[in-house]
Amino acid sequence: MANSRELVECMAELTRQPLSRVIGYMRDLREAEDSSPAKGRGVTAPDMTAHDAAALYCAIYAAPAIQESAATITALKKLEARPWSRHRVSTSSAYRYPYSEPPFSLGLEPNHTALDGLAALITFFMHEHELPHGYSERRGPGKWGIYANFEIRSPEYSASLVVGVHGRFSERWNYGLKELDSVRTGRCTEITFRKLAACLRS
What we know:
This protein is of the alpha+beta class. It contains 6 helices and 5 strands, in the order H-H-H-H-E-H-E-E-E-E-H. The protein is 36% helix and 19% strand. Residues 89-99 have low confidence and may be disordered.
């Protein structure tokens, strides 16, 4: 698993933020105990978790200043989670799946937080290779395979996530209410999630 240095380097590359700035976000989160404790260096440094990555990502995109990272995470944790899902099977032979139940779930509960949701999505991609074979295969024209999206908005905080299989199933959670004066400040898709998952597994 990645240590804190490896995580901040990966996050700096993915978000295109200066490394020194990402280190500042991580430091503020650690001081507020919103990430794994800063004990040890080098080979003794603690492994980073999906929750650490989720907190760091949200701080980078939603905190108005580095020193407000912890306060931003606290505010995000207070957002109400609202579920929405869709299970659909096309009658077209090109899209026929031999399953009658949703192929997977993030395993989230109604009382989870936006950070929990993002961490669950990161964890999902860390174990994507364990899913039944076939979800990444092309099935006829159009979009195909597993997709995911996470968005966070500020200054009036809200967030949303979705994961699914094109033409088959989707699981979506919304956090808080999207306000008119809020803008999308951060967005990542399955491409980013796969890169972050690979970093955490290293």
